[in-house]
Design goal:
Helices cover 39% and strands 21% of the residues. The protein contains 9 helices and 7 strands, in the order ααβαβαββαβααβααβ. It has a 7-stranded mixed beta sheet, sandwiched between helices. Helix 4 links the parallel strand 2 and strand 3. The relative contact order is 0.17.
């Protein structure tokens, strides 16, 4: 969570802070995804394909989409090497290149923070979801030490987070409702400062805090449902 492009993430994930943070965030996303992770899944803003690979290995039919051509190519290489392959296409979250009602589950992890119109992106996600389908979105929390740290870095001249948006759980719920989706569950994660030692010491408390509040969470996740009865039910 220290770079503006998907290609910055793999190196960061190898640090102590990155490994712990990635593990906690992934646990939240997969918990919110639930059984729908076994159907047709779309990973919006898939980056290098980390989540797409995990979901494909769990038995889902996964497609990843990313607006960054280098990231999409990296994800495609990952898919070719994986024991459970997945499809990758280049595309914009605000105009997804898929037919309506194509997916049982859509995940979007730190994708909305860099799109021009998060509301339009969520409307597109709602369009490609099947009735009864689920959106799981994970975003950068506005009410956190991490957000304050990123703003300070921007004020000091760093361009890394200048274009990034931060979200509260209420704002994510509003985006879902505005697209006709029904918010279901909200979780927080990453309540420690952005330092490896702090992560090591405080990570055991994180799952408990994340079920109680999203205030102070650097990562806020939401599950929302598309009204309707799934086909074949």
């Amino acid at each position: 969570m220290t770079g503006p492009t998907p290609l910055d993430y793999p190196a960061w994930r190898e640090s102590t802070l990155g490994k712990i943070t990635e593990r906690l965030e992934r646990a939240v996303i997969l918990d919110l995804a639930g059984d729908r992770s076994r159907g047709d899944v779309l990973d919006v803003g898939c980056g290098v394909g980390t989540y797409a690979g995990v979901l494909a290995a769990a038995g889902a039919r996964v497609t990843g989409v990313d607006s960054s051509l280098p990231a999409a190519r990296a994800a495609a290489r990952r898919a070719q090497d994986a024991s459970a392959p997945f499809a990758v296409v280049a595309g914009d979250a605000s105009k997804l290149p898929f037919d309506g009602a194509s997916f049982d589950l859509v995940i979007a992890v730190t994708a909305l923070c860099f799109v021009g119109s998060p509301a339009q992106a969520v409307r597109e996600i709602a369009r490609v979801l099947r009735p009864g389908g689920r959106l799981v979105v994970g975003e950068l929390g506005r009410l956190s030490i991490w957000a304050a740290w990123r703003r300070v870095r921007t004020w000091l001249g760093s361009s890394t987070w200048r274009r990034a948006a931060f979200f509260t759980s209420r704002e994510l719920k509003g985006l879902a409702e505005g697209a006709g989706l029904v918010p279901a569950r909200v979780r927080g994660a990453v309540f420690y400062p952005p330092a490896g030692l702090a992560a090591s010491v405080l990570a055991p408390l994180d799952p408990l805090l994340g079920r109680v509040t999203t205030v102070g969470a650097a990562f806020v996740a939401l599950a929302a449902e598309k009204p309707g009865v799934p086909a074949g039910s």
